[in-house]
Amino acid sequence: MLIYPSILTLDFSQLESQIKAAVAGGADGIHVDVMDGQFVPQITFGTPIIKAINSVTNLPLDIHMMVIEPDRFFADFADAGAKSITVHFEAVEDIEQTLAKLDSLGVNKSLALNPQTEIEKSFPYLAQLEQILIMSVNPGYGGQSFIESSLQKIDQVKNQIVKQGLSTNIQVDGGINRETISAVAHAGADIVVAGSVVFGPNKNPTEGIQLLKKNLES
Description:
Blueprint: E1 2-5, H1 15-25, E2 30-35, H2 47-54, E3 61-66, H3 74-80, E4 82-88, H4 95-105, E5 108-113, E6 131-135, H5 150-163, E7 169-173, H6 181-187, E8 191-194, H7 205-217
Parallel strand pairs: 1-8, 2-3, 3-4, 4-5, 5-6, 6-7, 7-8
């Protein structure tokens, strides 16, 4: 299973060193939470941060758009170095059209579902996706506790992916730590997003990633 640290709690005065420390620990990608203050209360990052991260690492940049009308920013984010772009099921009116726009830019297409949204609503789109993102906390804030019912959603969507003969990756975001990562992996996740366990006050990103990987092996 792959581990993508989220920069939501990163110390931006030390962006380069923190990113490189996570890379040294074995991070497989970098997860960037883009928030617009409308779909979720917070406002976070835009194109300059994506460019800055892309300049200090070759790891894939995984852009998670918690944004109303996200297609306004697709081209800019793709040009800035995004490898994959996630949009929320709850934030777009025409999912087919939105995914087609992403496809035209050559980025991996990903669809996120909030905890309250039934996982079955994603099934018609799985064949068009490189990734499905299951939110295991409510979107918008770091440091929340893992929602246990997310494990059943992972299992359900995994079974549907197998049933349809697809290779869509399952990503899980929220509440990932040394206690929850093994259960998420066992349920069938391919990628986890880890935030405050990696980046934050008095945190060593290298050790944070290594400890998560160690828990996967045990």
